[in-house]
Amino acid sequence: MASTVIGSGITVDGDITTDEDVVVQGTVRGRLTARDGVTVESGGIVEADITGGAMNIAGAVTGNLSSSDRVDLQHGAKVVGNVKATRITIADGAQFKGNVDMDL
User: Shortest CA distance to 98 belongs to which of 75, 66, 69, 76?
Assistant: First the structure.
């Protein structure tokens, strides 16, 4: 399936809802809801609650993450918020401040 890409020079203020994967290279403020996966690349900034499938975070997120699958915090990720997922991985060099709810 195709991806929705929010490029590095783009700032979105408001709610985003999509049936596709979302790749954030720029900035999102508001709420982000994706039926499929969400990727926040290094340099990407999300100041929003994120709901979706599998999540791969390498950038900065301030907001709650709710995944129907897994959340992977990559090296360099900075996450402030609560995480709800079936699985979570936190790589060396990732920063996380919040609570984890493992929805088994």
Answer: 66
DSSP state of 41: -
The count of other CB atoms within 10 Å of the CB of residue 76 is: 16
Q: Residue 85's closest CA among 18, 21, 37? A: 37
**Locate tokens 């982000």: which residue?**
32
Model-wide pTM > 0.70: yes
% pLDDT > 70, the chain: 96
Report the distance separating Cα 45 and Cα 48, nearest Å: 9
What are the start-end ranges of the E strands in the chain? 3-6, 11-18, 21-24, 27-34, 38-40, 45-52, 55-57, 60-62, 65-67, 70-73, 78-80, 83-85, 87-90, 95-97, 100-102
